[in-house]
């Protein structure tokens, strides 16, 4: 019997080892951890990154590991206030590094040889720093490099011909430096983006690069050739005319008549110049008077756009960004690596972003997980955009950036708080992370413009899904989806109330955005009411009765709005739509109460649910009771948001995915993978 037992025991041991191996937390090798810590220790930085030897390196801010967490593959530290040279013997020890981004800092010195020892490096983003010296020819050792962005530094010398050895290169941006000499004949088949503008380059543009637009070479006064003007007029003297003296000395015989004609021409030119000068002087005086008269009226989008175009140009020419912002978040002030030519922009978004660029020297401030994005005001200015909706606090736009990232930009109007209070409030909103809440990712504040940036969720709003194109062949929202949306909204509200002590202030169907996973709808536009003067116009038919008198939003008024939302899901009627009662909105709770009072409860429910053959009458009646409790006239009679979550979970059973307990234990720190599946997280790659 000993024989058969031995293999069994060995198999059991192997299984135990395998189980232990699977359960163990993988970590990069100690050499990589020490290299990262040595880099951070030796480099002054203004923003605390929280790198700690006692925590896993793969969880550090800006550090990304491979799928097995066995090695560091990306280091992204944009705008964290790094000052000084890159210490030798640090980042060069990350042998499997594929992406390095230190953009928008104050990195000094030359491009270190350390970085040229990384064989797997695919993307290097060092723009908007203070790097000096030449581009080292040793850069050819980075044979797999696909993106090289060194824009807006103090680099000098010539562009090395060795760049031709980077056969995988797709993006090369060297604009805004002090590079001189001629452009080498770079013939890389896959190169799709090139920018060497605003340098001191001269000579003719190689034919291999003539396919790129004029903007790629602008700002080099001595460059010529396609796509710029031809070189013959600037660099080669014209062919002498037959009557000209070969030696350039005295005039040829018989040229006295030509001398007289030349004198008359000169006199004509002088007279013409005097006349033109007088006309210009008159025009300048008239313009000054006109500007003085219209200065007070310049507030339309066209004025903002034109003013910004003039102000944004020098910013795009490589002015180094300020060291930090009042908001304390990661900031972005540089054009990103993947941008190509300017794409078509919606005029309103152009006015918003451009007006912001024209204002005070402020920057886009990223908060919370917004650090995963990599764009700035210039990107928003160039973005292709469309209006998503106009609300009481501002207009929302869908902005598609040049590299393909899509975000939502909300242009606020009538903000009533100062910069310091605005910054502090945005930092608080950026800290909210929950799959049923859509937090602010970035913001911009200047005297003339206030912008908020959110993740874009392509599935649209609950309002559009519930009310859009009724009766025109669309698929109605079934009961399962309505229950999941109700539970998601309640969970998001409970998270704001209990964890962050925030009042939403504007709970309504258009602020419930649908994610791809059915039980992860998200509440958006939360807690913006603190930025504006008190008003009773917001939220329409969703506002609680006491808000009309006190103008004070509370947790209980949020619950009332949630109750109206539940009634909207049950009845299919929107409280924001006009009614025949003369007040512009439908008092949905009062209408439901009147129908139920007549014992016609079945008449309350949406006719589309009846057509779908919904067989959940008991659940619908139970949710109606929860909704009516939420819209009680007396605030103290309304349940708290966590109680509403519990009651809906008890009704729905299998509708709601996770339970309240699971929410409190697991969802508060939503995993990156879950957020990426739900479409609500910034892109992790390939932007720096």
From TrEMBL:
SMART domains, per database record? LRR_TYP (SM00369), S_TKc (SM00220)
The record's listing under Gene3D superfamilies reads: Phosphorylase Kinase, domain 1, Ribonuclease Inhibitor, Transferase(Phosphotransferase) domain 1
Q: List all Low complexity biased stretches.
A: 308-318
Q: Which InterPro entries match?
A: At_inactive_RLKs, Kinase-like_dom_sf, Leu-rich_rpt, Leu-rich_rpt_typical-subtyp, LRR_dom_sf, LRR_N_plant-typ, Prot_kinase_dom, Ser-Thr/Tyr_kinase_cat_dom
Region of interest (Disordered), ranges: 234-257, 308-339, 650-688
Q: What molecular function terms (GO) are annotated for this protein?
A: ATP binding; protein kinase activity
Q: Which residues form the Protein kinase domain?
A: 382-651
**Main localization, broad class:** membrane
The signal peptide stretch is: 1-26
Keywords in UniProt for this one?
Answer: ATP-binding, Leucine-rich repeat, Membrane, Nucleotide-binding, Phosphoprotein, Repeat, Signal, Transmembrane, Transmembrane helix
TM segment ranges = 265-289
This entry carries the following GO cellular component terms, namely:
membrane
Q: Where is the protein found, in the record's own terms?
A: Membrane
Q: Record's family?
A: Belongs to the protein kinase superfamily. Ser/Thr protein kinase family.
Name used for this protein in its record: Protein kinase domain-containing protein
According to its UniProt entry, this protein's organism is Miscanthus lutarioriparius
């Amino acid at each position: 019997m000993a024989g058969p037992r031995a293999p069994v025991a060995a198999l059991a041991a192997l299984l135990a080892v395998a189980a232990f191996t699977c359960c163990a937390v993988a970590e990069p090798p100690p050499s990589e951890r020490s290299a990262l810590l040595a880099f951070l220790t030796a480099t002054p930085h203004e923003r605390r990154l929280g790198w700690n030897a006692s925590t896993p390196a793969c969880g550090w801010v800006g550090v990304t590991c491979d799928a097995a967490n066995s090695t560091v593959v990306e280091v992204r530290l944009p705008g964290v206030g790094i000052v000084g040279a890159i210490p030798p013997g640090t980042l060069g020890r990350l042998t499997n590094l594929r992406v390095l981004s230190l953009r928008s800092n104050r990195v000094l010195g030359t491009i270190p040889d350390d970085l040229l020892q990384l064989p797997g490096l695919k993307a290097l983003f060092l723009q908007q720093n203070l790097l000096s010296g030449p581009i080292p020819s040793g850069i050819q050792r980075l044979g797999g490099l696909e993106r090289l962005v060194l824009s807006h530094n103090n680099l000098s010398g010539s562009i090395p011909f060795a760049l031709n050895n980077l056969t995988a290169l797709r993006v090369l941006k060297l604009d805004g430096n002090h590079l001189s000499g001629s452009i080498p004949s770079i013939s890389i088949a896959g190169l799709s983006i090139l920018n060497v503008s605003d340098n001191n380059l001269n000579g003719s543009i190689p034919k291999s690069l003539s396919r790129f637009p004029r903007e790629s070479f602008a700002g080099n006064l001595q460059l010529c050739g396609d796509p710029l003007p031809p070189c013959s007029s600037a660099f080669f003297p014209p062919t002498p005319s037959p009557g000209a003296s070969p030696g350039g000395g005295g005039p040829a015989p018989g040229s006295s008549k030509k001398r007289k004609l030349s004198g008359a021409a000169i006199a004509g030119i002088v007279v013409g110049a005097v006349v033109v000068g007088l006309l210009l002087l008159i025009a300048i005086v008239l313009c000054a008077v006109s500007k003085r008269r219209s200065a007070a009226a310049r507030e339309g989008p066209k004025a903002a756009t034109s003013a910004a175009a003039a102000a944004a140009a020098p910013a795009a020419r490589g002015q180094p960004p300020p060291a930090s912002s009042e908001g304390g978040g990661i900031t972005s002030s540089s054009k990103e690596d993947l941008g190509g030519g300017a794409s078509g922009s919606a005029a309103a978004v152009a006015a918003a972003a451009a007006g912001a660029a024209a204002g005070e020297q402020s920057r886009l401030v990223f908060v919370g997980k917004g650090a995963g994005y990599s764009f700035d005001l210039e990107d928003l200015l160039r973005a292709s955009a469309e209006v998503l909706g106009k609300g009481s606090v501002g207009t929302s736009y869908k902005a598609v950036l040049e590299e393909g990232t899509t975000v939502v930009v909300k242009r606020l109007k009538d903000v009533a708080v100062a910069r310091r209070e605005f910054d502090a409030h945005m930092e608080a909103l950026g800290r909210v992370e929950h799959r049923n809440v859509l937090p602010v990712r970035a913001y911009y504040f200047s005297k003339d413009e206030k912008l908020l940036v959110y993740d874009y969720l392509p599935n649209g709003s609950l309002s559009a899904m519930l009310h859009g194109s009724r009766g025109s062949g669309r698929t109605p929202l079934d009961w399962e989806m309505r229950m999941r949306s109700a539970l998601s909204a309640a969970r998001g509200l409970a998270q704001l109330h209990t964890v962050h002590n925030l009042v939403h202030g504007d709970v309504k169907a258009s602020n419930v955005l649908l994610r791809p996973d059915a039980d992860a709808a998200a509440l958006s536009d939360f807690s913006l009411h603190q930025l504006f003067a008190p008003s009773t116009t917001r939220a329409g038919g969703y506002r609680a009765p006491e808000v009309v008198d006190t103008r004070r939003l509370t947790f209980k008024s949020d619950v009332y709005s949630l109750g109206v939302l539940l009634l909207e899901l049950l009845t299919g009627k929107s409280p924001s739509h006009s009614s025949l009662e003369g007040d512009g909105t439908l008092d949905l709770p009062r209408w439901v109460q009147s129908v139920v009072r007549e014992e016609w409860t079945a008449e309350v429910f949406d006719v589309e649910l009846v057509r779908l053959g919904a067989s959940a009458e008991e659940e619908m009646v139970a949710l109606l009771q929860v909704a009516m409790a939420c819209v009680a006239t007396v605030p103290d009679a309304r349940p708290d948001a966590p109680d509403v979550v519990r009651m809906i979970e008890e009704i729905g059973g299998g509708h709601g995915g996770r339970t309240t307990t699971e929410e409190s234990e697991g969802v508060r720190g939503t995993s990156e993978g879950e957020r990426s599946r739900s479409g609500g997280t910034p892109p992790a790659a390939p932007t720096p």
